[in-house]
User: Which sequence fits this backbone?
């Protein structure tokens, strides 16, 4: 493998000073990074945290001397192990990328080329940089797959990206980054797209391999609890500037700056649970499958009480979203029925009346794809007002403004396009679109999982306030236990198409736990830096006992 | 059965069904054309009885569906009927030739010219598409785009005459007439058809090249391209190894469209170079109301279109790893 003279642990590996990076849009340069510094030593893992738009990824990529299209590094110095990356030519920088500095991207599914086998992509950098022969690289990749606890490490590389799961892909990408034994790896939100149960495994294997090969790493995330497990030191970034730098333990126990403290206290929403016996929507012994495939839902029964929030939790593939599709009529069930206010709803969407459609609305995970990019806010919210309520002219405009006020946006948003709003604002507009129909039930499918924590908090409080004012029932589909704690009254736990547990929040979230619920709950990262180590030891012990 | 095999068989079936529908449309629409072959041959002054007798001789008095089934059955066995011309009542005797015999050599010539143009144009278009994507917005990119756009914007006959002017008049490199005969050797044929082939290349290269460029550039914003850049892969390798394999579907469709054009749409070029292809034959047959030949040409053109598009579909399916390697 790479035989360059590795320095001692503790030597400075990367030093970035006064970095200024600007992005070009609307015919102007906008600052993204405003004079940030970063010093990383060999064998050290630095966590960079901040909200979206703070410049985390931009700073991370700059450490490879790379700026995304439309961005440019306009100032500062980047010194990587004695090489000035700013002064270096593009081909010199290219020589470093994939050999001495490697990158692990957020969305493994999008970052693997769909046309090539995993192993060919894993060893590509090694071959193109001439680090090792093809044979060596292949056997080493298999070793790395094994180190990362991938199933069938000898053959998994022969598969194509779409043939393995998201968690496995993320680990293959770590192997790809590791293949050249780089001095530095940039992890850019590598677990954000994964379920908690998968996340634990991926985090553990990443930490293991970084320690094993004594690699320095920059770990970018907006999840504090995750960074606490991974990093030796933490840098808090906001608006392209460093807010605070400290080692992990002191940062967690004693954050100095106001902003850092506010990040730490985000998860403070807590909902008093309420009991209601009035059932608005009932899923009655439903089986469902996608065209000709295997059964995705197996005898599902869920009672949804009026004016309450019921959270459906489970890992991906457990049937959460399919349940929502059955409720909305997008997927007619094979067996069973959905009852609304005691009366069965037609199984097919096209057979439902406008009145029935209007009562159940949906909000989606990705506000970006759920809105037509060429429709203004007026079109997006106005459409259900016209379609369901027949509003026109002034009445329509008045209602639009009312709805905007309800979601805490002012009238100036009315003519904006989705591209002119932030992620949180877009999700608010989607909420207003659902509200416009004056529904009784809103199905929220992972509505906060694409947002960072401060924005999440805003959306969740908004949803709670709306429920209090309008008495709406929420069905909250999520894999995020913190969200569940914050917003739900009742919880349904799903696993492999079955309901494993259903009950009040207080019952489900307190012992004794069912096995699966326990696995789910214990996988949620905590702010304690020893949490992951403790959890892995505990699980190992439990395994040895059984 | 592998899902790809299944899909391909389905497509083949669909293509066949389409061809059947097209054959009905061809047959019936020619039926509705004004005028009548009998009258056209015998002249306005012919007695109604003579015309009727002539029609009976050609089988034109039978009901439409019977004639259609008869014709279709013939095609299935490689018999497209006999040409109407040569059956002039004036001579009395039947000197008509089989349609297949008429079309056969012509289609060979057409396919020869089309392949020659395709062999030059397709690799050239792909090369230009990849390199303009690689050096996007450079002077090279703009020049290639400008030149190919210019050649596609001129009418074909204009390009043809300019080429004749340059390569036959000023520099006597190629002959201006491409009247190839059956007994010419391959090289002679290639030499004689050089100018028409170059003309066709200039006409079709822009379309394919621009689609290649656009398809690649469209993919260059994908996260996996950024990943390849961050692995230190060179720009040209990124385009060839990472972008192109995912760009085949749109490119192949445009190539198929242009290849079909090479077979069915080149009559103007044939006329300019006096090239004995199918296009000219069909135009002549339309003028003389030689219905069996028109129908024969039309069905061959339709089959070419359907076959090439089918091929493009199959290639798009076969280059999609999600379909080729199911979970």
Assistant:
């Amino acid at each position: 493998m790479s035989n360059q003279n590795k320095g001692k642990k503790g030597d400075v590996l990367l030093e970035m000073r006064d970095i200024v990076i600007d992005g070009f849009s609307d015919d102007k340069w906008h600052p993204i990074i405003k004079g940030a510094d970063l010093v990383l030593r060999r064998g050290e893992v630095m966590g960079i945290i901040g909200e979206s738009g703070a410049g985390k990824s931009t700073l991370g990529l700059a450490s490879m001397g790379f700026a995304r299209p439309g961005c440019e590094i306009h100032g500062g110095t980047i010194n990587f192990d004695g090489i000035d990356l700013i002064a270096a030519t593009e081909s010199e920088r290219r020589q470093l990328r994939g050999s001495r500095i490697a990158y692990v991207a957020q969305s493994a599914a999008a970052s693997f080329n769909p046309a090539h086998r995993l192993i060919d992509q894993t060893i590509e950098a090694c071959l193109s940089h001439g680090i090792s022969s093809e044979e060596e690289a292949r056997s080493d990749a298999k070793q790395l797959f094994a180190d990362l606890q991938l199933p069938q490490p000898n053959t998994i590389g022969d598969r194509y990206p779409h043939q393995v799961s998201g968690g496995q892909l993320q680990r293959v990408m770590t192997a790809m980054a590791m293949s050249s034994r780089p001095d530095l790896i940039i992890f850019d939100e590598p677990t954000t797209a994964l379920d908690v149960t998968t996340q634990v495994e991926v985090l553990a294997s990443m930490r293991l391999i970084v320690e094993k090969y004594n690699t320095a790493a920059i770990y970018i995330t907006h999840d504090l609890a995750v960074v606490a497990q991974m990093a030796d030191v933490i840098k808090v970034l906001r608006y392209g500037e460093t807010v605070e730098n400290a080692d992990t333990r002191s940062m967690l126990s004693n954050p100095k700056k106001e902003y850092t403290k506010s990040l730490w206290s985000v998860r403070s929403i807590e909902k008093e649970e309420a009991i209601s016996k009035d059932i608005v929507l009932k899923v009655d012994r439903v089986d469902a499958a996608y065209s000709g495939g295997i059964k995705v839902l197996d005898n599902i029964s869920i009672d949804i009480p009026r004016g309450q929030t019921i959270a459906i939790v489970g890992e991906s593939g457990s049937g959460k979203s399919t349940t929502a599709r059955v409720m909305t009529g997008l997927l007619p069930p094979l067996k069973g029925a959905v009852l609304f206010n005691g009366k069965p709803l037609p199984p097919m969407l096209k057979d439902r009346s406008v009145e029935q459609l209007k009562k159940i609305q949906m909000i989606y995970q990705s506000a970006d794809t759920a809105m037509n990019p060429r429709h203004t806010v007026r079109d997006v919210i106005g459409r259900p007002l016209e379609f369901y309520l027949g509003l026109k002219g002034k009445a329509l405009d008045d209602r639009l403004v009312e709805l905007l006020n309800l979601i805490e946006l002012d009238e100036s948003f009315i003519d904006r396009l989705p591209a002119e709003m932030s992620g949180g604002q877009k999700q608010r507009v989607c909420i207003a679109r659902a509200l416009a129909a004056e529904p009784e039930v809103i199905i929220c499918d992972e509505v906060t999982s694409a947002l960072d924590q401060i924005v999440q908090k805003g959306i969740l409080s908004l949803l709670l306030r709306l429920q209090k004012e309008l008495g709406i029932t929420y069905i909250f589909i999520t894999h995020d236990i913190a969200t569940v704690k914050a917003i739900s009254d009742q919880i349904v736990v799903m696993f492999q198409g079955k309901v494993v547990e259903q009950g009040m929040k207080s019952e489900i979230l307190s012992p004794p736990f069912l096995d699966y619920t326990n696995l789910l709950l214990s996988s949620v990262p905590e702010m304690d830096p020893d949490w992951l180590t403790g959890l892995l030891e505990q699980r190992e012990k439990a395994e040895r006992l059984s | 059965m592998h899902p790809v095999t299944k899909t391909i068989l389905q497509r083949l079936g669909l293509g066949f069904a389409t061809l059947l529908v097209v054959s009905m449309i061809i047959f019936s629409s020619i039926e509705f054309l004004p005028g009548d072959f009998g009258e056209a041959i015998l002249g306005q002054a012919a007695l109604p009885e003579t015309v009727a007798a002539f029609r009976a001789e050609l089988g034109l008095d039978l009901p439409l569906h019977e004639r259609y089934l008869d014709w279709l059955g013939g095609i299935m066995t490689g018999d497209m009927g006999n040409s109407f011309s040569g059956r002039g009542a004036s001579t009395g005797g039947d000197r008509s030739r089989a349609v297949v015999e008429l079309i056969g050599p012509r289609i060979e010539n057409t396919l020869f010219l089309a392949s020659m143009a395709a062999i030059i144009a397709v690799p050239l278009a792909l090369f230009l598409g990849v390199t303009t994507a690689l050096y996007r917005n450079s002077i090279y990119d703009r020049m290639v785009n400008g030149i190919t756009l210019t050649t596609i914007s001129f009418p074909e006959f204009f390009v043809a005459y300019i080429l004749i002017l340059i390569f036959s008049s000023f520099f006597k490199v190629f002959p201006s007439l491409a009247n190839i005969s059956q007994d010419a050797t391959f090289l002679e044929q290639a030499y004689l058809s050089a100018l028409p082939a170059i003309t066709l290349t200039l006409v079709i290269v822009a379309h394919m090249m621009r689609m290649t460029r656009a398809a690649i550039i469209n993919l260059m914003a994908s996260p996996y391209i950024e990943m390849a850049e961050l692995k230190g892969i060179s720009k040209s390798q990124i385009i060839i190894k990472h972008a192109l394999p995912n760009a085949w579907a749109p490119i192949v469709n445009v190539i198929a469209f242009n290849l079909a054009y090479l077979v069915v749409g080149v009559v103007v070029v044939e006329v300019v170079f006096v090239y004995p292809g199918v296009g000219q034959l069909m135009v002549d047959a339309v003028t003389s109301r030689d219905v069996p030949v028109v129908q024969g040409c039309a069905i061959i053109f339709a089959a070419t279109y359907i076959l090439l598009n089918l091929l493009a579909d199959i290639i798009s399916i076969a280059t999609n790893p999600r379909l080729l390697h199911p979970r």
